[in-house]
Design goal:
Helix content is 48%, strand content 13%. By secondary structure, the protein is α/β, with parallel strands linked by helices. Among the domains are: 4-35 and 53-68 and 85-271 and 279-376, 7-stranded beta/alpha barrel, CATH 3.20.110; 404-559, no CATH class; 563-685, no CATH class. The strands form 5 sheets. The chain has a 6-stranded mixed beta sheet, covered by helices on one side. The two termini are 38 Å apart. The relative contact order is 0.07.
């Protein structure tokens, strides 16, 4: 956590100066771009944003999460280890990605005096697969990241903070040449589609590099990369006319000076000298400080961070120097909770107070081109002392205890074999469909970014070898998806840890399985048995699995999904969900062509026609389903291809006729005769939907239990109070009854309150009074209420009311609405809900600068033009105090 040494009060004038911009950012003016339009030559010569002058600071965050989506659903399924969040992306987003987009600067009392978008000042790369998830999950944060790059471009003379990343974090030195190029091209194209510019730099997964990788980067127009100091072998000043052959300095033990950029020439040994050999520029981050950020106390406060960075400043009177550090971006909030505040205060105050210029690599390179040359060690990475063996051998990195990593080499060999087999499949089949199959693969990123029918059609029109039939178009997309999964199966995380059967290893095998399946769909080639046989050579540390073949059979094969299972999911869930005629279902479009439902006593039968279309490969099926709910947890569902209208009508008539006998056995027999023996049950549903339906099926029982507990509580209220009054141990049965009854009352009242308008009506006040009474009752009886739903509902209510209050103010109702908001917040405290008021705080801070401060300034100047009475304005500022926003200066200025 950031210490209170970071919590220094900001100048009120800072807040006021930014009010007219409507910004939620409160940095020191030293961090804002100067107006360069009319600067004199002398001013430009001393401007550190235009001329290399003094100390420059670059803090680089490598933000990345491995792709976690189910290959068949294109969605992340629930990960219990991430609780209380749905999955690890959500949890880390809550702890890191969003807090850095809205990083707080606090005063000594813990009140917000500024909100900084750290991405405006961090150098950063965000993995394309993570950016895709952010775009889906939290478009507000996603947009702030894009805005941050744009603003950094404006501040730093066109050089944005964002750099690209090789697409899905594969170890490029271990990739074949085609995969290297595709990874780089996909990373570039994904970057351009988001940030609207070509990347100058690229982050390499695990900073893994060799000269072949450098050549690929240079060929694709990448100007610079960032490496660890341990990856350099030797360096020297660039040759000049006066010194054409300067001496080399060995720096293989991490002794390279990281305060300057270097140029790495790619002329191969034995090649005739070239006057202009290709090159790439390289920055080496400061290793000791970067390690201290990740594993020590450098981020415990901005004071410590600045002190640690200051130790790296060279006192040799050089005109300029760069202090560059790099670490996993998740360090800032996830690995080290609250450290985004440390960064925010450092960016806004500590760095400019010392006259240091916050920059990024591209900007510094524009001011200070390399004057030194570097040669790299042959094959290296930042997280393995053995080159890149962590991703192919039992090198000891990432191990622990008695477990070994002898599985790494067989896993790598099996995937390489599969990749090469899929290359043959793609090459043979692809040449029949595409003019240039490998160019089509390189440009397939355009479809990955936009899977609309229009874009897919345009892509196929550009690349098809001839006019393709509908079946051939599907095969073309299947082949490209096969190649996408063949790339995803090399995601580095699969080798990083100690055991193959971990989620990361299972995930890359799931991608391999999907690639195998797609290859078989297009060409009929059957590679799975040979692939699994190769996996049996990979020993597992877990006795249950023994080897990779069993990991594949138990954890991968069992999770595969076909279109009939999707249809069964639709059919069973349709009994509890009213689907539209056209329904999006994960990565499928479900078109309901017919649907009929009939209940007979405890039995419910639904029969329908469904057309399923994959939004990824565009393959489609026309299916008939019948699902019988026998009550409780028992379902019997059957699926078969649509055989024509006549046979479908006969099937419906026969099944509903069987149902009229009110016999489950007769109905199931009729279904088996119509569909065959294959059937699906509740267990066949995808986990998310299965759990939802299980909760629905349990609801009636839970409602009866709630009523029973409530009656027990009412009948024994006096007894309960007597136990508590005399400080005796309360019988568990009575205490549980009280907690269940009060929890249910809270939820009912909150749901009713949420149905109201949010404008402090009498009905709303009645619900609020009821909730406050329940909170008092619960406190008297020492009840611990189970209220996760209440927490979320109360947070939504507060945010809704606050938005209405601050965007459509009414001077006559301000007092009532503010009072209601304060009571809602107090209610959360009394019920120990641990409310998250972050979004409410961000909304208030934004409107404080956009609206409230100008209104205060109007009163302060005596102009009297404020649209809101001073008393109402004071009340709104007092609400800011309740939200822990520092408004003390403006409160003191009101009459």
């Amino acid at each position: 956590m950031t210490s209170t040494s970071d919590a220094r009060p900001s100048k009120p004038s800072l807040n006021g100066n930014l009010a007219s911009r409507g910004s939620t950012v409160d940095p020191d003016p030293a961090l804002l771009a100067p107006d360069l339009t009319h600067q004199s030559g002398a001013a430009i010569a001393t401007d550190p944003l235009r001329t290399a002058q003094g100390v420059y600071i670059t803090v680089h965050g490598h933000f990345y999460q491995p792709p976690r989506e189910n290959p068949y659903l294109d969605a992340i399924e629930r990960q219990p280890s991430a609780a209380p969040f749905h999955n690890w992306n959500e949890r880390i987003h809550h702890e890191c990605y969003r807090p850095n987009a809205f990083a707080r600067v606090l005063n000594d009392h813990g009140d917000v005096v500024g909100i900084v978008n750290n991405y405006e000042y961090l150098s950063f790369n965000i993995g394309p697969t993570l950016m895709n998830w952010l775009e889906r999950y939290d478009v507000e944060v996603y947009q702030r990241i894009l805005d941050a790059d744009r603003k950094s471009c404006e501040r730093l003379n066109g050089h944005g903070n964002a750099i690209a990343q090789a697409y899905n974090h594969i170890i490029l030195p271990l990739a074949n040449q085609r995969d290297k190029l595709t990874q780089i091209r996909w990373g570039k194209a994904d970057f351009h589609s988001r940030f609207g510019r070509d990347p100058k730099g690229m982050w390499l997964a695990e900073t893994a590099v060799d000269y072949s990788t450098l050549e690929a980067l240079v060929a694709e127009g990448i100007r610079f990369i960032v490496l660890a100091p341990s990856q350099a072998q030797r360096c020297r000043t660039l040759p000049t006319a006066d010194n054409p052959n300067p001496d080399w300095h060995e720096v293989g033990g991490s002794q390279i000076d990281p305060t300057r950029p270097y140029r790495c020439f790619l002329q191969k040994p034995g090649e005739p000298p070239s006057s202009q050999p290709p090159f790439i520029d390289i920055f080496f981050y400061d290793g000791p400080i970067s390690r201290d950020m990740g594993f020590d106390s450098a981020l415990s406060s901005s004071y410590n961070l600045v002190g640690r960075l200051g130790q790296a400043v060279r006192g040799d009177h050089r005109p300029s120097q760069l202090i560059a550090v790099a670490t996993d971006g998740e360090t800032f909030g996830h690995h080290k909770g609250g450290t985004e505040k440390c960064l925010a205060y450092a960016f806004a105050h500590e760095f400019p107070d010392r006259g240091w210029t916050v920059t990024n690599f591209a900007h510094y390179l524009s001011l200070h081109p390399p004057a030194w040359e570097v040669e790299l060690k042959p094959v290296t990475a930042w997280s393995c002392a053995h080159g890149v063996d962590r991703w192919q051998d039992d090198c000891g990195c990432g191990g622990g205890g008695s477990w070994n990593q002898k599985w790494r080499r067989p896993l790598r060999d099996a995937l390489d074999w599969l990749r090469d087999q899929l290359v043959k499949t793609y090459d043979d089949a692809g040449h029949k469909l595409f003019r240039d199959p490998w160019l089509a693969r390189d440009e397939y990123i355009q479809v990955i970014r936009d899977r609309t029918v229009t874009n897919v059609n345009a892509f196929l029109s550009r690349h098809q070898a001839r006019k393709l039939s509908n079946a051939e178009r599907i095969d073309a997309l299947r082949l490209l998806e096969m190649q996408r999964h063949a790339l995803l199966m090399y995601t580095s995380c699969g080798w990083f840890f100690e055991e193959l059967s971990r989620p990361e290893g299972v995930q890359i095998l799931r991608y391999a399985a999907r690639a195998l399946e797609l290859a078989g769909d297009v060409t009929g080639v059957q590679l799975e048995a040979a692939f699994v046989k190769r996996l049996t050579i990979a020993p597992s540390n877990v006795d249950w699995f023994k080897h990779g073949g069993e990991v594949y059979r138990q954890l991968v094969k069992s999770a595969q999904i076909n279109l009939e299972q999707v249809a069964a999911h639709y059919a069973i869930s349709s009994l509890f969900t009213t689907y539209a005629k056209e329904q999006h279902l994960y990565c499928y479009s479900a078109n309901q062509l017919d649907y009929q439902l009939q209940r007979m006593g405890p039995l419910t039968l639904a029969v329908g026609q469904l057309q399923l279309v994959s939004e990824i490969t565009r393959e489609s099926v026309h299916l008939v389903f019948a699902v019988l709910h026998l009550g409780g947890w028992d379902f019997h569902c059957c699926i078969q291809p649509f055989g024509g209208r006549r046979s479908y009508t006969m099937l419906k008539d026969r099944l509903f006729a069987a149902l009229t006998q009110a016999s489950a056995a007769q109905t199931i027999l009729a279904m088996s005769q119509c569909f065959g023996s294959q059937s699906y049950s509740l267990q066949s549903l995808f986990a998310e939907e299965r759990h939802r339906i299980m909760r629905l099926l349990s609801q009636e029982t839970l409602t009866r239990l709630d009523q029973l507990y409530t009656q027990v509580y009412r009948d024994n209220y006096g007894v309960l109070m007597a136990f508590h009054r005399d400080e005796l141990a309360v019988p568990q049965e009575l205490q549980v009854a009280a907690e269940v009854a009060l929890t249910q009352r809270v939820l009912l009242s909150l749901r009713a309150l949420e149905q109201e308008s949010g404008e402090s009506t009498p009905a709303e006040l009645n619900h609020l009074v009821e909730l406050e009474a329940i909170a008092t009752e619960a406190a008297l009886l020492h009840c611990t209420l189970n209220l996760p739903e209440a927490k979320q509902t109360l947070e939504r209510l507060i945010l809704r009311s606050l938005w209405t209050l601050l965007h459509t103010p009414n001077g006559k109702t301000v007092e009532a609405v503010v009072e209601q908001l304060e009571r809602l917040i107090e209610l959360g405290d009394r019920m120990s809900l641990n409310l998250s008021l972050a979004k409410a705080q961000e909304l208030y801070f934004q409107r404080l600068h956009q609206w409230l401060i100008p209104e205060c300034s109007s009163w302060q100047s005596g102009e009297g033009r404020s649209a809101i009475p001073a008393a109402a304005l004071r009340r709104l500022l007092q609400l800011g105090q309740r939200l822990s926003v520092d408004v003390s200066y403006w409160l003191s200025q009101l009459p």
